[in-house]
């Protein structure tokens, strides 16, 4: 099977199988070999690596991954793409094609079976509508990953890398930065895809922290605090936390926790750093325990 990665080859494959793009899966296939090469380079894949690819499509990226890695597991939700993948990847004996929903796949078990629990590398061209749930599942699952190299909508990439005080800063920024170090690799215009999406894309690499950059007593509580802080962005931090039903604290108690950090009582959540959120959640936990 000839290498994919250009419009002519992609069209040939799609026509052969009478493939119809499904809007519900957010399918946009990459047709630019330069971008494909940049992604593989960014993922720093070697012949010692096991790679999990999410959303292989017709196998365009998968071919590059098979050339670079020891072994690849390609997880594709669309059953109509499985026969295409079986053809486009038939020359490779180091790939397993799995017709599964990645949100229902036991990724940790897969990593254990395929790579004896050693850190794996994840590569994905994610459908825009489900980018955040997939990323959060990987990050929160304690999956042993070395890095995640992912194609996402430009505005999602912007949210991953920004700091406090900007309009893009939010719960996703803090979660990504707690678990990993995000870096923008390359901007990808709509013309690099078939069909062309309406918005630009960005390749981002998330390199897992050896240990989190902040110390927090209760990680789950911290992320509840963060979500509550951004749930109603226009409200003050104190009001946002008080309106969040999971905290059994009076508003005055929440305000005292905020002020104990040296912050004004009317501060908004979008101005707090990850370190400040960690400390705030520790103080809220202490208040809850004392009650």
Description:
The protein has 291 residues and is α/β, with parallel strands linked by helices. It folds into two domains: 7-208, 3-Layer(aba) Sandwich (Rossmann fold), CATH 3.40.50.150; 219-290, rRNA adenine dimethylase, C-terminal domain (Helicase, Ruva Protein, domain 3, Orthogonal Bundle), CATH 1.10.8.100. Helices cover 41% and strands 17% of the residues. It has helices at residues 7-16, 33-43, 60-68, 82-88, 107-115, 131-140, 154-161, 171-179, 219-231, 237-242, 251-259, 274-290; strands spanning 29-30, 50-54, 71-75, 95-98, 120-125, 145-153, 180-188, 193-194, 201-208. It has a seven-stranded mixed β-sheet, sandwiched between helices. A two-stranded antiparallel sheet has the order 1-8. Strand 3, helix 4 and strand 4 (95-98) form a beta-alpha-beta unit. Helix 6 runs parallel beside helix 8, helix 9 (219-231) packs across helix 12 (274-290) and helix 11 crosses helix 12. The chain is elongated. The protein starts with 6 loop residues before the first helix and ends with a helix.
Note the main attributes of this structure.
single chain, 291 residues, alpha/beta, Rossmann fold, Helicase, Ruva Protein, domain 3, seven-stranded mixed β-sheet, two-stranded antiparallel ribbon, 12 helices, 41% helix
